Amino acid sequence: EGAEMSVVCLTDFEAHARERLSKSTWDYIEGGAGEGFTRDDNIAAFKKIRLRPRYLRDVSQVDTRTTIQGEEISAPICIAPTGFHCLAWPDGETSTARAAQAAGLCYITSTYASRTLEDIVAAAPRGFRWFQLYVQPDRQLNKQLVQRVESLGFRALVITVDVPKLGNRRHDIRNQLNLKTNLLLKDLRSPQERNSMPYLQMSPIDSSFCWEDLSWFRTITQLPIILKGILTKEDAELAVKHNVQGIIVSNHGGRQLDDVPASVDALPEVVAAVKGKLEVYLDGGVRTGNDVLKALALGAKCVFLGRPVLWGLACKGEHGVGEVLNILKDEFHTSMALTGCRSVAEINQDLIQFSRL
Ligand SMILES: Cc1cc2nc3c(=O)[nH]c(=O)nc-3n(C[C@H](O)[C@H](O)[C@H](O)COP(=O)(O)O)c2cc1C
């Protein structure tokens, strides 16, 4: 055993994760699309926002709890859907699910989970979970999948809209990364529907899926529908018009279309467009408690973490994810106290200013 690893912030986990993962896995997790401009801008944009702290407000009691879609979470920090957790840690998604349950946060499980949905639920039966769907070309498969996640107790359907096709990820092309053959993907079909053949094919995404098709999902599920990957006021208005319950402002961690705005820069226009008619969340580049506070000040109800969860998993499995979540929750508590916020409801635009740099 080497030197005791000292991890006190999320970027410490990043450095340790890098040492533990193969080059191709590291590149797959970290990489952005194209030139990686948006991937980096997700981080840089948070740094252009300054805080305006208020003092002498009795912050002896700071409450980080809030709700999403009416359900309580211990802090506005949840887990974004990311695929293939078994790449980072042998147990994969069951470890993530346990850590999320222990932290009292929502875990959005990906269509590309590398454990079965049944295993994930069994590992953390009291966990609060949403399911992220990549719409499949086969309507029946979508229907089976959605009804299965609903009966398994997932509480919302998150439809990712920014992947009508995969972004251009140069590292993965250079590394000839092939997730189809490297990983035994779980079978998307329900246990009853499976035949004895393993479902090795990476299921394709339906690139014809469009706004008009959302109403079909309404007919097959009672779950709230959340659209992940909206970046413009035009699409935000359409989301309101189509009666979805939430939007995750996201650029997929800069992995899809490069040269789009950082998530936190796109957030204000989306928040303004929806006029409070649905909840707006954010993911992309959240690495510190201050980042969480800034996103909430700009109108996000909660933020989601992508890569940091995978760093935690790669370092120490369930315990690593737990540490990542707890470090960020502690930092956010400090951010609230030092800006004079006793409750999440007190976080508003007056707490921030944009730097002219
Ligand atoms: C390795 C990896 C896999 C991902 N897989 C998915 C996925 O299966 N579905 C999805 O909607 N988003 C996926 N995303 C995007 C994340 O949900 C999220 O938008 C992004 O990672 C947030 O940025 P951050 O990594 O800077 O926190 C993935 C991201 C990464 C890094």
UniProtKB/TrEMBL annotation:
Catalytic residues, chain numbering: H252
Gene name as annotated: HAO2
Entry's Gene Ontology molecular function annotations: (S)-2-hydroxy-acid oxidase activity; FMN binding
Protein name: (S)-2-hydroxy-acid oxidase
Domain FMN hydroxy acid dehydrogenase, first and last residues per copy: 2-357
Family: Belongs to the FMN-dependent alpha-hydroxy acid dehydrogenase family.
CDD domains: alpha_hydroxyacid_oxid_FMN
Any one GO BP annotation for this protein: fatty acid alpha-oxidation
Residues that span the membrane, as ranges: none
Cofactor list: FMN
Organism in which the protein naturally occurs: Myotis lucifugus (Little brown bat)
Keywords: Flavoprotein, FMN, Oxidoreductase
Binding-site positions, glyoxylate: Y28, Q132, Y134, R169, H252, R255
Catalysis performed (reactions): 2-hydroxyoctanoate + O2 = 2-oxooctanoate + H2O2; a (2S)-2-hydroxycarboxylate + O2 = a 2-oxocarboxylate + H2O2
GO cellular component, as recorded: peroxisomal matrix
Keyword match Heme: no
Residues binding FMN, per UniProt: P81, T82, G83, S110, T160, K228, S250, D283, G284, G285, V286, R287, G306, R307
EC number of the protein: 1.1.3.15
